[in-house]
Design brief:
Elements: E1 8-11, E2 20-26, E3 29-34, E4 39-44, E5 50-52, E6 60-62, E7 68-77, E8 80-87, E9 93-97, H1 110-115, H2 122-140, H3 155-165, E10 171-174, H4 182-195, E11 202-206, H5 211-222, E12 227-228, H6 231-238, E13 252-256, H7 257-262, H8 264-272, E14 277-280, E15 288-289, E16 292-293, H9 295-306, E17 309-313, H10 322-332, H11 340-361, H12 368-377, H13 384-392, H14 395-412, E18 419-420, E19 433-440, H15 444-454, H16 459-462, H17 474-479, H18 491-503, E20 508-511, H19 515-529, E21 533-536, H20 542-553, E22 561-564, E23 579-582, H21 589-596, E24 608-615, H22 619-631, H23 641-657, H24 664-686, H25 690-697, H26 699-714, H27 717-729, E25 732-735, E26 740-744, E27 762-765, H28 768-773, E28 778-779, H29 785-795, E29 802-808, E30 817-826, E31 842-848, H30 861-867, E32 868-869, H31 873-899, H32 902-930, H33 936-954, E33 957-969
Parallel strand pairs: 10-17, 10-18, 11-13, 11-14, 12-13, 14-17, 19-24, 20-22, 20-23, 21-22, 23-24, 27-28, 29-33
Antiparallel strand pairs: 1-2, 1-5, 2-3, 3-4, 6-7, 7-8, 8-9, 15-16, 25-26, 26-27, 29-32, 30-31, 30-33
Helix pairs in contact: 2-27, 3-4, 3-26, 4-5, 11-12, 13-14, 22-23, 22-24, 23-24, 32-33
Length: 970
């Protein structure tokens, strides 16, 4: 290398520094100043990682003054180059000295980098190609956004997510029974809408008690980082210098319903923002009557009018009354559900349809009335032959006829497109529950504390006090006025120790109402018997909770028991355990069901053993009997709990405060509660809409989805690709015994900001079952932000876009060379149009010889990749220098070959898009004629989408992505 002051060089390892200027050459060192960044570097002359920048005839060179010179010739004098040509701003002849070239110029075009000696390794080039191919496949995948959640592959959940998540601005009511996974369904829909670009900004509104559950669920299961907004967060943001709307700072926002309704200022700020999707949990708490709507309902209603997509999550729809059910549908589609009386009339008419549908589902003969109902309802199509076959034909014809009529009914179903409801009657895979109760004697100290509380006021006065609720957790009540350790006198502690010892190594989950109870229990187990326990409560950070859950979940060197406060009933997955100890009982049956639901989940492999210690003749015994005898809430899912609690919860509390725990009045209350429970249950069962359940469960479509995702999970393409990425980026990888890999940052990383890799490392797995068992592991799928982010790192940068390889082939003369060019055809369009389904970013490979002939069809890239060997830097620079004059014309010929393929790709995309859009438009138009729940906005969007997609496809442009010079050597 020969360096002289004023020459322009570029750093091979820091190309983002721009164009450098040699300022000094002293002895064995050269100093280069990079004016663009203000940095100066000193290099040893013998091995400086620098490349001299020399432009060729036809190049446009930017001056530091901002004008361009089109080069016609150049000359070198005193080791510095002067370029001559035509100025692009004036059209006049001009000259530009080397030292006056713009400092900020960067060589990121593949051929520029190649010709300037900025050459990447062969494995980097292969990685870039593979990123393009995988991007091409994923953009077209109908599983994009659907397979990436850390969830069990449960058919009805996946069906609902696919059916709803693929819609434009979905507006639906998710009303599955407790334990069937409404939150998972909502998360899958949110995830799919975000990953596919149908939505960018999401607002979740939940009761305050569920804030943390949603935060954890979205992060741990779907890698979605929602931000909680409360009073302090809003004040902090609004007091900043810019004073912007606080909600404009985040794309994914989580707020609690009380905060929204209590703060008009922040509610106005919330509604002033543009959101794509709103999710409201516990929507049955939005009270509405024809003459009176609650403030909560009004707030959500106004938001629902402004936000295109709305998901409402609720308990069983009619559980809180028919009027309440109408109110929720009204939020989703006020044009369709505008009159309660009319809705009631339609529903009454539909009971006849439901009766006929239930008969079809039950494979029973149709009555004359049912046949007439079906004939009238399906009058647009003649179904008389099918109806006749149901009662008269052989079994095969009967089955075919039933299926045909059911399909027709599903399309016409009144609320089928906006209401999804599954019940345990139709969804299989739940475990049995087994109750093991243990009545214990009340310690005298506890009895004294209770008596003292009860004597301090009347039952009516006590109801409003905080201490009153401590009747059901006497250890907390006792601790208020005593310095003695409650666990030294509480027989439940000895009961728990005996249970753990009898179960040996079996995992046990313990849930109690208060964090302090859980903390003290850990001390008691450790001190008394040396039993290892993990503690999980709201006082811990999310990281500490994860660590506790992982300590409980792992097989070796783990805790046998996890001691949880009430927060343990959040959406965590503990189904690997089969024993649940209810150290106390919550006052709300919904909360009891949530507790049991940590283990009672689809996929639970064994019977759940519920261990319930309680004190005899106490508030606890009253609550236990109410749950057991009135609601059968321990051994069966209690779908009536909320309604029964509304009717008898106050009476139950009053009896507890009046010490009437074993009285005739208490027995009467339990009997009345049981009668109410049976009545509501019977009403719900008789009102079961089997047609709706059939639609909600997805039948065959749901199982097909599971099979497709399972097949995708088993493919090896993703692990191979990710190991390739991790190797190139210099990520340290250590295999673990449980199908997982520990990743750590290293000193040799290409970037310190590798996506989803914290400073202290992380553990990943490609195995869904491993990820479900170990929630601190990251489940790597094509949708995971680590995969998508790493691909973006490669494709948005110049990594691997210029390379040289040596081909040793005795059949070819030494010195023969080829140019392999990778182009892409892509169109930039709004993400919600889903352009990638029809015109994904399409790689075009061109392989030209020295005469400019395209040999890509004759020589596969796989064959080349196997035969090529890397070349040393000095040799590469010599090859570039020798072939420089021939490469530039060949790049132009390669581009011409690529452009010839554009029209074919565009026409294929247009044909595919128009066929899909026309089919969907015809389907929805026909459906709207018989089912008013199909919104006109959906149909209009398809027409707009078709027109816009055609325009964007026609504007697709070709982009030069990568170049590889291949030289034959003997």
């Amino acid at each position: 290398m020969s360096f002289h002051p004023g020459q322009r060089w570029i750093s091979d390892s820091e190309s983002d520094q721009g164009l450098g200027t040699v300022t000094a050459v002293e002895g064995r060192f050269v100093t280069v100043v990079f004016t663009a960044t203000g940095d100066a570097r000193q290099y040893a002359i013998d091995n400086a990682p620098l490349t001299r920048v020399i432009f060729n005839t036809g190049d446009n060179i930017p001056s530091h003054e901002g004008w361009l010179l089109n080069v016609e010739s150049f000359e070198e004098s005193h080791n510095l180059i002067t370029y001559h040509g035509i100025r692009q701003d004036t059209g006049e002849a001009g000259s530009l000295k080397e030292v006056m070239i713009d400092h900020f110029i960067k060589f990121n075009k593949p051929h520029d980098r190649l010709l300037n000696g900025q050459i990447d390794r062969l494995d980097w080039f292969r990685l870039r190609k593979d990123c393009l191919h995988h991007q091409f496949s994923q953009q077209q995948s109908d599983l994009m956004g659907l397979s990436g959640g850390r969830v069990n592959l449960i058919p009805h959940q996946l069906y609902i997510a696919e059916e709803v998540g693929s819609r434009f601005a979905p507006r639906v009511l998710l009303a599955d029974e407790v334990g069937l996974g409404k939150t998972i369904e909502a998360g899958l829909i949110i995830h799919q809408q975000l990953v596919t670009g149908r939505a960018k900004r999401v607002l979740i509104i939940v009761p305050e008690s569920l804030m943390h559950q949603w935060l954890v669920e979205m992060l741990r299961r779907f890698n979605l980082q929602f931000s909680i907004f409360d009073e302090s967060r809003c004040e902090e943001t609004s007091n900043s210098e810019d004073g912007d709307n606080p909600f404009s700072t985040e794309q994914l926002v989580l707020v609690n319903l009380g905060f929204v309704t209590r703060n008009p200022k922040w509610y106005e700020a919330l509604i002033a923002e543009e959101w794509d999707l709103m999710v409201v949990d516990e929507a049955h708490h939005l009270n509405w009557q024809q003459e009176d709507a609650s403030i909560e309902y009004q707030c959500v209603e106004k938001l629902a009018q402004a936000i295109p997509g709305v998901l409402l999550l609720t308990a069983t729809p009619d559980q809180l009354g028919h009027e309440s059910h109408f109110a929720r549908l009204r939020l989703l589609d006020p044009d369709r559900f505008f009159d309660y009386q009319k809705f009631t009339e339609e529903e009454q008419h539909y009971t006849e349809v439901a009766d006929a549908a239930n008969t079809l589902v039950a494979n029973e003969a149709l009555t004359t009335t049912q046949m007439n109902t079906l004939t009238e309802l399906l009058k647009e199509t003649d179904v008389s032959d099918y109806i006749a076959d149901i009662n008269q034909a052989d079994q095969a014809q009967q089955d075919n006829a039933r299926q045909h009529i059911l399909s027709q009914l599903l399309d016409r179903h009144g609320t089928g497109r906006i209401l999804f409801r599954n019940s345990r009657n139709t969804i299989k895979g739940f475990p049995k529950r087994e109750l093991h109760s243990a009545p214990l004697e009340m310690p005298e100290a506890y009895q004294s504390a209770i008596n003292e509380l009860l004597l301090s006021g009347t039952a009516e006065d006590l109801q409003a006090t905080k201490q009153a609720k401590l009747l059901f957790t006497p250890e907390i009540l006792f601790s208020l006025d005593s310095h003695e350790n409650w666990y030294d006198i509480d027989p439940r502690v000895e009961y728990l120790i005996d249970l753990l010892q009898s179960l040996k190594k079996e995992k046990v989950l313990v849930i109690c109402a208060h964090a302090q109870t859980a903390i003290d229990l850990e001390t008691a187990l450790r001190v008394k018997e040396g039993i290892r326990a993990a503690v999980f409560h709201e006082g811990l950070s999310i990281f500490e909770r994860d660590r506790a859950a992982a300590y409980f979940a792992q097989d070796e060197d783990s805790a046998q028991v996890l001691l949880c406060s009430e927060i343990g009933s959040e959406g965590r997955n503990f189904q690997f355990a089969h024993h649940l100890v209810l150290f106390d009982l919550p006052g709300n049956p919904d909360l009891l069901e949530q507790r049991i639901g940590r283990l009672d989940r689809i996929g639970q492999s064994e019977t759940i053993r519920l261990h319930v210690p309680f004190f005899e003749d106490s508030p606890q015994s009253l609550l236990f009997k109410w749950y057991k005898h009135a609601l059968n809430a321990f051994e069966q899912t209690c779908i009536t709990g909320h309604a029964v609690h509304q009717s008898f919860g106050a009476k139950l509390f009053e009896l507890a405060l009046s010490a009437s725990w074993e009285s005739a009045e208490a027995e009467k209350m339990i009997e009345d509660s049981h009668e109410k429970h049976l009545t509501i249950k019977q009403d719900l069962e008789s009102g079961r809409d089997k047609l709706l359940e059939l639609h909600s469960s997805g039948q065959g479509r749901a199982n097909a989805l599971v099979e497709k995702i399972e097949k995708l999970d088993q493919q090896i393409h993703l692990p191979q690709f990710m190991f390739q990425i991790l190797d190139v980026f210099g990520i340290q990888q250590d295999d673990k015994a449980d199908n997982s890999i520990a990743l750590q940052q290293s000193e040799h990383m290409l970037t310190s900001n590798f996506p989803c890799l914290p400073e202290d490392g992380t553990t990943i797995t490609f195995n869904r079952h491993t990820a479900l068992a170990c929630e601190n592991y990251q489940l790597i799928t094509w949708d995971h932000p680590m995969v998508r982010g790493a691909m973006d790192l490669v494709l948005c940068d110049q990594l691997g876009n210029a390379s040289i390889g040596i081909l040793k082939n005795p059949a070819l003369p030494a010195g023969t060379f080829f140019l392999e060019c990778i182009f892409t055809l892509e169109a930039i369009a709004p993400s919600n149009l889903q352009l990638g389904r029809y015109l994904p970013t399409t790689p075009i490979r061109i392989l030209v010889d020295k005469n400019g002939n395209d040999l890509a069809d004759k020589v596969s890239e796989a064959v080349l990749d196997q035969q090529l060997s890397p070349v040393k830097k000095q040799v590469a620079l010599q090859l570039v220098k020798a072939l420089k004059s021939q490469v530039a014309p060949l790049v132009a010929k390669a581009e011409t070959h690529a452009e010839k393929q554009i029209d074919v790709i565009q026409q294929k995309a247009l044909t595919s898009m128009k066929a899909a859009m026309d089919e969907e438009h015809q389907r929805l138009t026909a459906l709207k004629a018989i089912n008013p729940s199909v919104r006109q906005q959906e149909i209009d969007f398809i027409s707009m989408q078709k027109s816009a997609l055609a325009e964007y496809i026609e504007k697709a442009l070709i982009k030069f992505e990568a170049i590889r010079l291949i030289v034959v050597s003997q």
